Amino acid sequence: MEEINPQYSEAVEAIKAAILKSQARAAQSVNQEQLALYYGIGKYISLNSRDSKWGTNSIKSISEQLKSELPGLCGFSETSLKKMRNFYEQWSLFENRPPTTDESADVHSVIDSNAVAKLNRSPLAGDLDINDFLGISFSHHDEILSKTTSLEERVFYIHKAATLRWDKYTLRDNLKADLFHHQGNIANNFVATIPDKRLAMKTIKMFKDEYLLDFINVEQIDETDPMDIDERVIEKSIVMNIKNFIMTFGKGFTYRGHQVHYDKFGVNSWIDLLFFNRELKSLVCIELKKGEFKPAYLGQLSAYLRILDDEEKLPDENPSVGIILCREANKPFVEYVLQDYNRPMGVATYTTSLQQLKALLPPEEELKKLIGKSDTEE
C-alpha cells in the first residue's frame, strides 16, 4: 500500500474518529431498540400470562408457533420469552406510569421504543444512568437480574459493565466473585497516608477485601508438607495465569514482573509481583503469603515501597501502593497495626470456588454421619 502523504494524516484521523463514533452510535441504537422490543414483549406476556389469562404451556406454544412461522428466528425460545417477562417485571416498578387495562390486548401499544428510557421513577431516579442501562446488552441484563437481589447491586453492575465495557463472561466472573460486596472493603491506611483525598478514595475502591483466584490449586498446596512449601508455589500459579490475575484485580493494571530484584546497601530484596496502575498512576507491589496475616509482613512491605519510590517512581507519578495477599486476615487487627505505617498499604485475602463450596458443607465428621445414615436407610 502506498504511504500516505503526511499532510493527509490529520484528515485520516478525523475521518476514522467520525466513522468509529458513528458505528458506536449505530450499535447503541440497535441495542436500545432490542431492549425496547424485549421489554415490550415481556410486558405483553406478563399482562396476559399472569392471573391465568392464558392457558398452561402458553409461552411454550407461542414460541413454537413463532419458530414455525418465522423460520430461522433465534432468541425467542420459551426460556428467552420468560427472561423477557422477567426483564419487564423487574424494571416496570420504575416506569413513569402503570400499564392501562387495555394494553394487555394490544401488543403494538405495549412495544414502545422509548419505554426503557422512561425508567426514571424514584427511587431509581438519580441512581441509574439511563445511558448505562441502554449501553449493555439484554444478555448482560439477564445475568445481572438472575444473580442479584437489590437495586443497589443492579445499578452497580450495570454501571461497571457499561463504563468498563465488560463482555458477558467478565460480568459473570465479577458477579461470581461478588464484587459489589467486596469492593472498597479492604483493610488499609490509604486515607491516612495519601494526602490527596480523592486519590485515597479511588485507591480504596480499586482493591477488594477478598479475591477469587480459581486458577490457584489451593488443594494441592494444602496437601503439601508445610516445611516444603513457600509462597513461590502460589506465585508460580499466578504468573502462569497472569492475564486472569490482572482481570481479577481490575482495570488499568500493567504487569511489570515477578521476583523483581533490588540491591540496596548490599541487602537483596525480591518483590513477589509488581504492577503499574494507570488509574492511580502508581506502582503496585503485591506480596503473597500462603497462611494468615502476620504484623511482620507490613514491615517488609513498607521497605519494598520505600525502595520502589526511590528507584522506580517517576516525578509525575504517585507514591507506590502495597498489597499483602494472604489466606486469612483479622480485619480489625490489621487496621489497628496499620496505624503505625506511613506508606499506603492494604491487606486482602484470596479464596477459590472449592474453598467457598467447602465453607457451605457441614463439618467432615457430621458429613460422614449423614452419608452413613443415608447408606443405612437405603
Structure description:
- This protein has 378 residues and is of the alpha/beta class.
- The protein has 18 helices and seven strands.
- It has helices spanning 9-49, 58-69, 78-91, 107-110, 130-134, 138-147, 151-163, 168-176, 179-182, 190-193, 197-206, 218-223, 232-240, 242-249, 296-311, 331-338, 353-360, 364-377; strands spanning 187-188, 210-212, 253-264, 267-277, 282-288, 321-326, 345-351.
- Strands 1, 2, 3, 4, 5, 6 and 7 form a seven-stranded mixed beta sheet that branches.
- Strand 5, helix 15 and strand 6 (321-326) form a beta-alpha-beta unit.
- Helix 1 (9-49) packs across helix 3, helix 2 packs across helix 3 and helix 6 (138-147) packs antiparallel against helix 7 (151-163).
- Mean pLDDT is 80; it is low at 220-229, 354-362 and 374-378.
